[in-house]
Amino acid sequence: MRAQPKASHFINGVYVEDTAGTPIDIVYPANGELIGRVHSATPSIIDQALAAAQAAQKAWARTSATQRGRILRKAADMIRERNRELSTLETLDTGKPLQETLVADATSGADALEYFGGLAASITGEYIPLGDDFVYTIREPLGVCVGIGAWNYPTQIACWKGAPALACGNAVIFKPSETTPLCALKIAEILIEAGLPVGLYNVVQGLGDVGSALVSDPRVDKVSLTGSVPTGKKVYAAAGAGVKHVTMELGGKSPLLVFDDADVEDSVGGAMLGNFYSSGQVCSNGTRVFVQDGILPKFLDRLAARTSAIRLGDPMDEETQMGPMVTEAQMDKVLAYIEIGKAEGARLVTGGKRAMGKNGFYIEPTVFADVTDDMRIAREEIFGPVMCVLSFSEEGEAIARANDTEFGLSAGVFTKDLTRAHRVIAELEAGSCWINTYNLAPVEAPFGGVKQSGVGRENSKAAIEHYTQLKSVYVAMGSVEAPY
Ligand code: NAD
After folding, report:
1. Could you give the CA distance from residue 277 to residue 385 in angstroms, rounded to a whole number?
2. 3-state secondary structure of 429
3. Most exposed among 30, 45, 267, 421, judged by the fewest C-beta atoms under 10 Å?
4. pTM exceeding 0.85
C-alpha cells in the first residue's frame, strides 16, 4: 500500500518539495509498513509559506464575505463527494477504522466549511449611538493564522482551524502533526479546486521545530494549537512573546459520572464511546468513569461483556470497530501505563495486552476497576483505550473528586434525574459537557477546555471571536470642543 503525496508541502496553490528537510516516514499503523515519506520544512519553505500567506490575505479580506462563504461551501460539497477517498486516506494516516473515518472525519471537516461558509456574510460590526455622535465597529480579520495539529483527527483539525479563519478573511498556514502528514494536503488541494485564491491555505510539514519557527515569526498574527499540555505551554509562551492571538486545544483527563438511577446500557455505551472510539486517542475522552455504588456491579458486568466483544481488526474492513494505536511509540506508552495500573493495584477487568500479532500497533480495549484518585492512571492523560472505573457514594464527593485535576476539557453525567444532571454539570470544571451521552462535537456547539486544557473555543459562533479583532470608530457630528 502506498500513499505517497505529490510533494511534502502545499504553498501558493501548488505542491512544493525541498528534500534538504529532515525525512519523515509515513507508517501505516495497522501493519507497520512504510507507505510514504515527506520532508520537514526548511527555513526556505517556511519563508515561502509565510510570504504567500501574507501576499494573499489583504485581497481575500476585501473579497465579499458572501463570495468567501460560497467557496468554503463548495469545498464542503467536494469533500462530501470524495468522502470515501478521503476517509481511506485518513485511515492510512491514523489507522482508525473506516467504520469511523467514513462518518467522523472528512464529514466533520465538511460540516465546519459549510457552517463557517454560511456564517461568513453575517460577520459584522455594530452601530453604537451616542446622542448626535456615534461609534461603529468593524470586525476585521487578524491576518496570517498558523494552525498546528495533533495526529488523532488530521482532516478534522485541518478544517476546524481553516474554515473559521478563512471565513473571517485570514490566510492560513497549517502544520499537521509529523505523524499524520497526508490529509491536510488533500484539504488544501480541494480548497483550491473550489476556487480559493492561491496562498490562503498553505500546508507545511515538520516536527516541533517547524511549528516553533512559525509561532515566533513576526509575520504571524495568530496561533491555534491542538496538542498536549506541555506543548501548549511552550507555544502559548512563544506566542505571548510576540503578543499574538492564541487558541489552545489541549489534553484532558475528563470525568464521566454515572449515578445509580442511570440507564445501564446507555451509560455503559457512553463510557465505551468516551474511551474506545479512535482507540481511545480522543482529547475529550471521559477516562475517569465515576460510578455510584448501587449501579457499579451491573455497570461493570455489562461493560466487561460489551468491551470484550469489540471487534479489533483490519481498519479497511468496515466491520472492524477498533484499529491500532497511531504509532509504535504511542502503543508502548499506553502498554506502559497498563503495567503502571496493575502495579498500583488497580483491578484489570478486561483487556490489557497487545493484540493482532507483532506488526500492527494494536492494544485490547482495557478496563481497570477499583481505581483510586491518587493512581497515576487516574491522573495522567494516557491517550489510549484504557478506561479507569472509580466508585463513589455521594454526589458532592463525586463532584469534588472529578474536579481534582489540572485538566478541564470535558465532563459527562448519566442520570435520569434532570435536576441533578444540570446541578452537577454546573459544578464540574470543564468546557465541553454532556448529559446522558458522551463525546458528540457538532460544529454548532463551542468546543474547548478550561484550566490547563485550553484557551479559546473552536466551532460555533464563538470561533469568530478568535479569528477577528474589533476596530471601533468614533464619528463626531459636531465641532470639536477643545479647552485650549
Ligand atoms: P503534541 O503536543 O506532541 O504535538 C502537537 C503538535 O505540536 C504537533 O504538530 C507537533 O509537531 C507540534 N509541536 C511540538 N512542539 C512544538 C513547539 N515547541 N512549537 C510548535 N509546535 C510544536 O501532541 P500530539 O501527541 O500530536 O497529540 C496528542 C495530544 O493532543 C493529546 O494531549 C490530546 O489530548 C491533544 N488533543 C487535544 C484536542 C483538543 O481539541 N483539545 C484534540 C486532539 C488532541
Report:
1. 8
2. coil
3. 421
4. yes
